[in-house]
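Table S5 (text form). Sequence records supplied for joint modeling of the two-component complex.
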Amino acid sequence: MIRDQPQGADLLAEARQVLREIISPGLASEARYKILMVLRAMDLHNAS
Amino acid sequence: MSGLEDRQQPLQAWLTKVFSARKVEVTSMKPLTGGAIQENWHIECEFDGGVIPGPQCLVLRSDAPSVIAASLSRREEFKVLVAVNEIGVNVPEPLWLCEDTQVIGRYFYIMRHVEGIALGPKVVKDQSLGGDRKALGQTLGRELAKIHSIRPPVAELDFLNIPDAHPAINVIASLRQYLDEMSEIRPALEWGLRWAELNIPAPQEITLVHQDFRSGNYLLDGEGLNGILDWEFTAWGDPMSDLGWFCAECWRFSHPELEAGGVSSRRAFYEGYESGSSISIDETGVFFWELIAHIRWAVIALQQANRHLSGTQRSLELALTGRLLPDLELQILNMTSPPTWETI
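The corresponding structure-token record, covering 392 residues in total, follows.
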């Protein structure tokens, strides 16, 4: 049986949090701007 | 965005020549973010003698791989920048235009680099930027009044067409044409255009208009305004159109309650404008242009998304811009809904 927990949406939420709270603050403004766009794209994907 | 790093030698040679230096060494070249339509590079260099000796921070602005039809050429944009700089509008000083494609492969111009943050959401959210926000709103109003003090004809700006009809009629026609040329069918935008057609405001005296004067296109530091950017859509037009664009809800980001660009009250912005202008603000006209702002931004968003989707310029930023459309369409419907809709 294929293990499917945690599910994709939960993993994506965790990944989002890592990007936003751990990786993004340490980046230069240009890279942070790009990370914010990636987060926005992840939000849109989740909502669709 | 690539290739400029390979053009360091011809760029140095060109800078040496036009600034009458003995030698110029480019020590750093980095692309700047925020230019969805044009490319901007931050260039640090050392001038040995010449017109601007010593270390200099400059910006090189060139065409991007694909352009939006309505935007000015780099030559035209440079001339606009010179014209507004001459009357004291707060802009990065324009220095030199290059139309020799041997240098970097396309036209570009050089201006002084100005420190500051321009990114709209940050400018609106970060209260440590821009100093006192009421004063900032007034300053932005005064700067816009200076721009609107330029009236046609101006020989140096003879490439700008003087409207032969009410600018609103021309804008509606051109937006409708853009929509017709796209395969997308957007009923809310068509509805908004029809509403606009039926509610054209009283004509104003024609002035120079920036056409993209909004939070996101000016630089702030901790003290206040450092420079107004992105003059590529400048034209002769209705001055109320710039006020409407600046105040439109789509440019207020996280502070929709601050009606002047998300940074101050509308009143503060208007006070600044009227203190520096002979033009009285027509609030009906501003509302009309706020609606047009939403439609225009929606059309630009469609165009930018198409640049990504067509493969002309793959970009996450362009792709995400396309996803702004539903919110813009909702705002258009909210602004134009007849009272009877509330009872349905």
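Note: The mean pLDDT of chain A is 83.
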